[in-house]
Design a protein that fits this description.
Distance between the termini: 40 Å
Order of helices and strands: EEEEEEEEEEE
Low-confidence stretches: none
Largest sheet: 7 strands, mixed
Length: about 120
């Protein structure tokens, strides 16, 4: 079994910063791409950013220049540094990981965390 646990959410004023973390644990051989998604009330879940195992990153236009995704492969952890936060960034943030599992036969499976609430409000 594999678990992803997010932390770091909370209430912050506009213009403030937060750092989210997502740690993977369990029967992990390796982790390929890791990503952050978010879902605002009444809206569909949307992709925010992703990072390859080698550190290549991609960002949604709405967060480019304000958010930074990074990872620590030794800790099986992905981070999302969020600066210059806006009220429209308010959402539940979810991490996703492509985890390679299995013993004699290995394959990649997608896992999701439970989400962490980020609220940007004065």
């Amino acid at each position: 079994q594999v678990q992803l646990v997010e932390s770091g959410g909370g209430l912050v004023q506009p213009g403030g910063s937060l750092r989210l973390s997502c740690a993977a644990s369990g029967s992990i051989f390796s982790i390929n791409a890791m990503a952050w998604y978010r879902q605002a009330p009444g809206k569909e879940r949307e992709w925010v950013a992703d990072i390859t195992r080698g550190g290549m990153t991609n960002y949604a236009d709405s967060v480019k220049g304000r958010f930074t995704i990074s990872r620590d492969n030794a800790k099986n952890t992905v981070y999302l540094q969020m600066n210059s936060l806006k009220p429209e960034d308010t959402a539940v943030y979810y991490c996703n990981a492509g985890v390679v599992v299995g013993s004699s036969f290995r394959y990649e499976r997608s896992y999701w965390g439970q989400g962490t609430q980020v609220t940007v409000s004065s």
